[in-house]
Design a protein that fits this description.
The protein contains 2 helices and 8 strands, in the order βββαβββββα. It is mainly beta.
Length: 163
């Protein structure tokens, strides 16, 4: 089952280049941090219930792992990943090859699936596509090059700096 998420803040954003996970697999991934939990999570929760019911019936097994979790501050978050490259677009739906960072905002198309492997049972989110909707404060504390170097100096690009 696939659906679009509500807007979230991206954390641990690895949508342009894969990163090796603890199992040694290269994955494209992002942690979705939903700041406005009243907006749109109902559809995701209903989809999770539907996937659980389809896989295990009306009685879910004990210890079932679910993708939506709550951190110590009460924020809802979920991880999603892909083994394959995903399309990444900007707010105008132009493909972009860079620029997504931890702290920006976005929406994603996710696939919701059940798994039952080696004693681990649960529901996971696959990352299908990512759209960067707007900038946000970087979570890693870094500054952009524009913030470091300031606005470009006026003048011709053809100025000869050697006189």
């Amino acid at each position: 089952m696939k659906l679009l998420t509500p807007e979230f803040r991206a954390s641990y954003a690895r949508v342009h280049e894969p990163r090796e996970n603890p199992s040694g697999q290269m994955k494209y991934s992002v942690q979705m941090r939903f700041e406005d939990t009243a907006q749109g999570l109902g559809d995701i929760k209903e989809a999770i219930k539907a996937v659980v019911t389809e896989k295990w019936g009306k009685k879910a097994p004990a210890g079932l792992r679910l993708p939506l979790r709550e951190d110590e501050d009460g924020a809802i978050f979920a991880n999603c990943s892909s083994n394959d490259p995903i399309p990444v677009v900007d707010s105008k739906n132009n493909l972009i090859a860079e620029g997504v960072y931890s702290g920006c905002y976005g929406v994603a198309q996710i696939s919701i699936y059940a798994y039952d492997q080696a004693g681990n049972r649960g529901v996971g989110f696959g990352l299908c596509a990512f759209k960067m909707t707007r900038d946000g404060d970087r979570l890693d504390g870094r500054q952009s090059a524009a913030e470091i170097f300031g606005a470009p100096e006026s003048g011709s690009d053809d100025d000869d700096i050697f006189g």
